[in-house]
Amino acid sequence: MLDNNTIQQLKQYLTMLEGPVVFNASLGSDENSNKMKEFLVEVTALSDLLSFEEVAGLRKPQFTVDQPDQTSGITFAGLPLGHEFASFILAVLQVSGRAPKIDEADYQQIEGITETLHFETFISLTCQNCPDVVQALNIMAVLNPNISHTMIEGGTFKEEVETKNILAVPTVFLNGEEFSSGRATLAQLLKKIPTTQKVDFKARDPFDVLVVGGGPAGASAAIYAARKGIRTGLLANEFGGQVLETLTIENIIGTPKTKGPKFMAEVKQHVEEYDVDLIDGQIATSIQKDDLVTLNLENGATLQSKAVVLATGAHWRNLNIPGEAKFKNKGVAYCPHCDGPLFAGKDVAVVGGGNSGIEAAIDLAGICHHVYVLEFLSELKADKILQERLGELHNVTVILNAETMSIDGDDKVAGLTYRKRETGEKETLAVAGAFILIGLQPNTKWLESTAVNLNERGEIITTADGRTNVAGIFAAGDCTDSRYKQIIIAMGSGATAALGAFDYLIRQG
């Protein structure tokens, strides 16, 4: 089942085992159970510290990852391959006794949980956001015996997915009730869980440069500031930003092809090589400038700095039409790579004819029965090469001059209504899903009541060196009025803003 390259890599990881691990598998006579047995036999043959036993269980196929005399609370229902293979490896190492690499504050919060919590995470193997959630909940199960977690692969347990009306991944259930949906970090999940261990936010002395945002622009700004030998901090709700939702990147010069999560993991590792105070899982709510720049946080704390670089990035723009909010994660989706497999064999619509929309349509055409592409303008805006690829597909219909009016259904998406702009006539498409890909909107709403100037699109107005209209406040990346929104341009603007901030500090004495 595993190719030679994967086996060699797995052998290297298994040398890091600190104790014995047993896989207790509940198997049936079906094909998926046979595949799981084959997988476990291959894995256990790679180390004398691994063993495999068959046990009775309600859900089949699944296996737990345990120590010989103690359960860990970690279960994999379905094969943890694809993006989840890393989750499997980490679970094995952590159950063996290898400590997870998390902040001390997160350790304390997890240890302070006294309730019995059982999490179930429904995933697809093509979802690049799912492993973050699976790995976070597995860590919680390893560290606290009151917590257990089961990863459920939707392709193996289709009936369960249909019964629970799951139309987006990752979807997490806690003690049988829906708990969260979509990408989330360990810190973000912990915010939603009651704990007896109160962890106070660590106070910081004022920074020389404080970067707000953990995407490409923010990371670049932090590195360039730290290289100047000045006191640097980086505040992020989630390190990685919008790039974490990018499946394939082919235009980073010097890196012909990579994946978004992998790329940002390497960027984070690069940041951590410098003396940067990385403050993760925190959200800024306002900013003001007096002698220092003061940043107010959602948790009630404040941070101060002589200069600040705003690099908060952007998020997918909403249509703001009836049904969009109601059916979010119930047929309305924004990530075809994550949620596409849940619509296998069904008809779906893609709203948006730019690069993102056409890339989504091409991907979905290989999974879905039929794909409708709706573009507001009279022609597609995507690159020519993407339009040519789209034209080769026989199960895609492109509808131009189409104004999407509503997304329809009862408890989930059942249709989409659009207006023909040339005639005013309305048409309804019977679709099970609507993927919205109409561009990005800057994450600047929190700045609307501050002194920082924004343009009509909500973008921060900057000069050539990244300055805003407020002395000491700089900005970079997709949250600014930069004409082109690209990873490489965001990184360049982050470096520019950091250098601009350093120059500002020098001139301030």
TrEMBL record:
Query: What's the superkingdom here?
Result: Bacteria
Tell me what this protein is called: Alkyl hydroperoxide reductase subunit F
From the UniProt annotation, give the residues forming the signal peptide: none
Into which family does the record put it?
Belongs to the class-II pyridine nucleotide-disulfide oxidoreductase family.
The family database entries (InterPro entries) matched by this protein are listed as:
AhpF_NTD_C, AhpF_NTD_N, Alkyl_hydroperoxide_Rdtase_suF, FAD/NAD-bd_sf, FAD/NAD-binding_dom, Ferredoxin-NADP_redctase_2, Pyr_nucl-diS_OxRdtase_2_AS, Thioredoxin-like_fold
Subunit info here reads: Homodimer.
Give every FAD/NAD(P)-binding domain span: 207-494
Record PANTHER family? THIOREDOXIN REDUCTASE 1-RELATED-RELATED
Which cofactors are required for activity?
A: FAD
Q: Keywords for this entry?
A: Disulfide bond, FAD, Flavoprotein, NAD, Oxidoreductase, Redox-active center
Which EC class is the enzyme in?
Answer: oxidoreductase
EC identifiers of the protein: 1.8.1.-
Q: Name one GO molecular function term.
A: oxidoreductase activity
Q: Where is the Thioredoxin-like fold domain?
A: 123-193
User: Which Pfam family would be a valid example here?
Assistant: Thioredoxin_3
Q: Which NCBIfam families match?
A: AhpF (TIGR03140)
